[in-house]
Amino acid sequence: GVPAALGYAQESGVAFKYGIIRNHYVGRTFIEPTQEMRNMKVKMKLSPMRSLIEGKSLLVIDDSIVRGTTSKRIVRMLKEAGAKEVHFRVASPEIKFPCYYGIDTPNQEELISHRMTKDEIRDYIEADT
Questions:
Q1: What pLDDT, in 10s, does the model give residues 78-106?
Q2: Residue closest to 30 by CA, chosen among 22, 39, 21, 19
Q3: pTM score
């Protein structure tokens, strides 16, 4: 998500800041076999920088959204850290079908973009837009 966020910031003139610190020792959460493990790893993986978040309207750009677990946690975490609004953007196309060639994606029913419209995803992850 960082390269996409940097490009967005450069083209739009909106300042780029690291409002979330990522623990690089925690891998990709979407490949974990159970929802409980995915939730736990997301919690371990991300830490908000309250001084950069509190009272502000934020734009978050992530590289992808698979099940919505990480996206929902990020939005909730930022709001708990005092964000006034959280606007969520995704750099990659919607993932509507499983990939059988190298990336361990879930079955089609678990893919959030297969089951929900963009408006339903926004509501599910609790983003403002």
A1: 999 999 999 999 999 999 988 777 666 66
A2: 39
A3: 0.81
